[in-house]
Amino acid sequence: MKSKRKIIVANWKMNPISFDEAKKLWSKSIKKIEETERISVIISPPYPYLTGLKKPNSKKIYLGSQDCSFERSGAYTGLVSPTMLFDIGVSYVIVGHSEVRKRGDTDEIVNKKMHSVIDSGMNVIVCIGEEKRNDNGEHLLFLKEQIEKTFKGINKNNYKNIIIAYEPVWAIGASSAMDSHSIYETSLFIRKIITEKFKIPLRSIPVLYGGSVDQDNCKNIVKDGDVDGLLVGRQSLDIKSFTDIVSALDF
Ligand code: PEP
Question: Are strands 39-44 and 61-65 parallel, antiparallel or unpaired?
């Protein structure tokens, strides 16, 4: 893992509120990322900005979408299809984000989206995470079941198109991140389940952590939590915080 590029996913959520601001945030983020050597960044703006933000021809920067429909086309008012996203140059799609799950996406829907994104020629960032945890370890059973359901029917050969974002729901938008030791234990647990399921080497599918990452905790989370990178929400909108995170992970 140490020799691999660390991955940062920037989830802008429903921000910023003007295209002008989006262009500024995009170009300042890109400028910083271009200076780095050991990271890859996937920036995921809201749908309306996707075509207007020009992706440089770089192996370090990718365009991501925050969600999509599992349908390809048809009478689905308000939805956006993976085929459309692929056509405009999107390389990664986040599925199963807890904010989308709260609006109704079940594990079965997330599973259909995973299939659809991969079949459309893109990579999928699948978010998993427990809503609460206690000392009984029930969250581990919850995670195992969530992985079984969301990965149903996913072909072993597709593992190169998948990134897992472990995001404990209670740590998203919170005042502090999960502690690094718990991140280490949980990410190892996730890696073992995936390894057993697909019979692939332990670190074949990158596992990221997301949930209240900032410029102060990011390096420790990646080093001590032993994850392959981070999914960053709020702090990806603050150019100073985000560029600090980008620099901190370039080791
Ligand atoms: C997220 O959007 O998935 C997220 C982790 O947000 P934040 O970094 O703001 O907690």
Answer: parallel
Q: Is residue 97 within 8 Å of residue 66, measured between CB atoms? A: yes
Verify whether ligand 1 is closer than 6 Å to residue 231 (CB atom).
Answer: yes
Q: Are the beta carbons of 238 and 39 closer than 8 angstroms?
A: no
Give the pTM. 0.96
Calculate how far, in angstroms, residue 210's C-alpha sits from the geometric centre of ligand 1.
6
Q: Is 97 a catalytic residue?
A: yes
Q: Whose CA is nearest to atom 8 of ligand 1?
A: 233
Over residues 137-154, the pLDDT tens digits come to: 899 999 999 999 999 999
Q: Which residues contact 103 (CB under 8 A, 6 or more apart)?
A: none
Q: HSE-up of 201 (CA within 13 Å, CB side)?
A: 5
C-alpha to C-alpha distance for 151 and 25, rounded to whole angstroms: 34
> Which one from 35, 97, 108, 181 is the annotated catalytic residue?
97
Judge whether 115 counts as a catalytic residue. no
Strand, coil or helix: 9 = strand
Nearest CA to ligand 1 atom 2: 233
Residue 165 contacts residue 126 (beta carbons within 8 Å): yes
